[in-house]
Predict the structure.
Amino acid sequence: MAFKDLREFIDELERRGLLKRIKVPVDAELEITEITDRVSKFRDGRNVALLFENVRGYDIPVLMNQFGSYERICLALGVEKLDDAANDIRELLKLPYISLKNRSSIVSIVSTGSKVINFPKYVKNAPCQEIVEENPNLGKIPILKCWPDDGGAFITLPLVFTKNPKTGKRNVGMYRLQKFDSTTTGMHIHIHKNGADNLRDSEENKIECAVAIGTDPVTTYAATAPLPRDVDEMVFAGFLRHKSVELTKCKTVDLEVPAHAEIILEGYIATDEMRREGPFGDHTGYYSLADDYPVFHVTCITHRKNPIYAATIVGKPPQEDCYLAKATERIFLPLLQQIVPEIIDINMPFEGVFHNCVIVSIKKSFPMQARKVMHALWGLGQMMNVKMIIVVDSHVDVQNLSEVAWRVFNNIDADHDLEIVHGPLDVLDHSSPLPKFGAKIGIDATKTWKEEGHLRDWPNEIEMTPEVKQRIDYLWRSLNLD
């Protein structure tokens, strides 16, 4: 089902016993983070979404950990399992009107798949504008200071709307905002992001911006998805929801925002004004270093009556961002397979914080194919930041880290099977000597062929015969070993 807004999602979470209301007074500084962090680490029914209804000094409740389990991320996306969302894309790729020439690009899906794409609907009377504050004050919002050495309080789940000044195309990204004072924040747009392109394309010293907080869960997810520049995130959200996203015109800027959002910040990004932002306890489990970023000036705030502030924390995994990333891994696998067809499956393990490690299984049919796959992945969008790519054979379960480790530890020759290259790295990578680029490694853990220079015989894996397995399966219950 497509949730109309965040409130419907909260109601469904509560109905299923997946949300707990916290009525005990807590502080927005550090305390909400500590509670949420402990809950996010649970691997049982105690890992629930949290609605903090009594935040000291504020009248607005705070929603945390809404995506923080496989069950909740699937519920958010309206699927039984994450691969179901990917199957929608697989079915779409089979349609005859998807050009064979362009079928590897999601752009072609959006542009030619109008029969199945739900484009945004524009409405005038929007809940997000029930209250209009022309004298904005960010101090009324319970913005969290998450970790002890953070540079301040940060808005951590914002949908940042801008338009490209040259093309007029909308972009929606998720970039943290450090609160500087009652009307200004930092705008942490990484230089590799599409939103940064919009700033660079501006010929003036400012660009209009709107920030939506607390949207329906699919729309929130869409802002995190690594879409090509020309794909509208709101169209993508409509595709995933099987229902159009309702948008409304902002009050003071020429932008449209989700009509059912809880809070909207309107204003502009000063492209010629930089201010020190950070440090920030990040999803790597380390603090990202302070640096200079553009400033967002808030000129108007609109919100629903009795709004809910949606936030998240990041830190040592697992956190709820891990499950958002897993959704991306599964949803985008069919498109990845269109571009690199030998790919069988992919795993971006929590411990690799998404951009540090990718494990991929391939159907190997020619020598050095694993190297081809590594370089193909490094050439794809945000995959350019992946620091380690591990390639295994098709029969290996990449979701089983123990099996992958066994293959890597036993199959590689350090001189032959490591591919070290240099290129872009994620801004958050702290291990490279210089920021934003450095060395990356590919590990070929596939069976090495004689054509690849391995002249010795490769041993067979130890496996029991199918007949014995079947006979013991039949006997197993009588052995009373379970």
In short: The first strand starts at residue 19 and ends at 22. Confidence is low (pLDDT under 50) at residues 97-104, 110-115. The two ends are 39 Å apart (CA to CA). DSSP finds 13 helices and 23 strands in the chain.
